Amino acid sequence: MDSQTQNTSLQRLQNVEKTVVRVLEVAGGVMDELSNPTGPRKEFINNHCRDFMQMIKDIQFTLRNEIKSACEYRPFEKSDYTCRIANEICLSKLEHILSQLDLITQAITPQYHHAHDSTVSSTSSPMDF
Fold first, then answer.
1. Which residues lie below 8 Å from residue 59, measured CB to CB, with a gap of 6+?
2. Four-residue CA torsion sign, 49, 51, 57, 62
3. Is the separation of the CB atoms in 61 and 19 below 8 Å?
4. For the residues of 29-48, what is the DSSP string, one character each?
5. Of 55, 64, 81, 111, which sees the most CB atoms within 10 A?
6. What is the pTM assigned to this prediction?
7. 41-94 pLDDT, tens per residue?
8. Which Pfam family, any one of them, does this sequence belong to (predicted)?
């Protein structure tokens, strides 16, 4: 990622930070209005709630785009997700192979013993005259 892209990305994140502060100010204003002894003004509450929701949507949109662009040029640092998934897949493959080998062994073992027993009984020893 080049320096210019980093600067614009940082600027967008700084704008998000400022918007978060503004969201908290708007929420505080709504809380103040709701606690007003004369009662809340409906128009004030509606406008602030509309602003609040729009700012939250803008924050979400910007953060999603920043995360997506960060993932496009490099994986997250110190993330072992890909390695762990690859290891789990390898482990599953090995377990499957071992189970297949066990099945083959179980299928072959009786035949081997039967063939070995018949070979042993058909050969005569030098003492059998």
1. 16, 19, 20, 23
2. negative
3. no
4. HHHHHHT-TT---HHHHHHH
5. 55
6. 0.50
7. 999 999 999 999 999 999 999 998 888 887 665 555 667 777 888 899 999 999
8. Med11
Question: How big, in percent rounded to 5, are the helix, strand and coil portions of the chain?
Answer: 80, 0, 20
User: Is residue 92 a contact partner of residue 84, using CB atoms and an 8 Å limit?
Assistant: no
Q: Are 27 and 56 in contact (CB under 8 A)?
A: no
Rounded Cα gap, residues 113 and 93, in angstroms? 30
- Cβ partners under 8 Å of residue 34, min gap 6: 40, 45
Residue with tokens 């009786």: 110
State the DSSP code for 2.
Answer: -
Q: How far apart are CA 69 and CA 81, in angstroms?
A: 19
Contact 24, 55 (CB under 8 A): no
